[in-house]
Design goal:
Elements: E1 12-21, E2 28-41, E3 47-56, E4 63-66, H1 68-75, E5 88-89
Antiparallel strand pairs: 1-2, 2-3, 3-4, 4-5
Length: 90
């Protein structure tokens, strides 16, 4: 798996987003939200572990990422935390 999507072999499904317009196919869809871990050795810390969140469009299968803070908010139940502006193309 690519490092931008994390390097752990365990990908977790976090639910469906609210209806968002896909930047690629321009369809209004509910994206599937997934998370993974990106673990790296760091000089300051023994292990630097970040959660990587990514969304998949069910129509065109495009993959987008969001900031860790936005993903953490979504994980806590705030579906309105992720909008079309927050999507970053891989």
């Amino acid at each position: 798996m690519e490092y931008r999507l994390g390097n752990s072999k365990y990908v977790k499904y976090r639910g469906d987003s609210r209806e968002i317009t896909c930047p690629k196919c321009q369809s209004k869809v509910n994206f599937g939200v997934f998370s993974n871990y990106d673990r790296r050795l760091d000089a300051h810390e023994l292990l630097n572990c970040k959660t990587v969140y990514f969304l998949v469009c069910p129509k065109c299968a495009s993959i987008f990422t969001v900031d860790e803070a936005k993903g953490d908010s979504f994980k806590k139940g705030q579906k309105l935390s992720i909008t079309d502006i927050d999507l970053s193309t891989l």
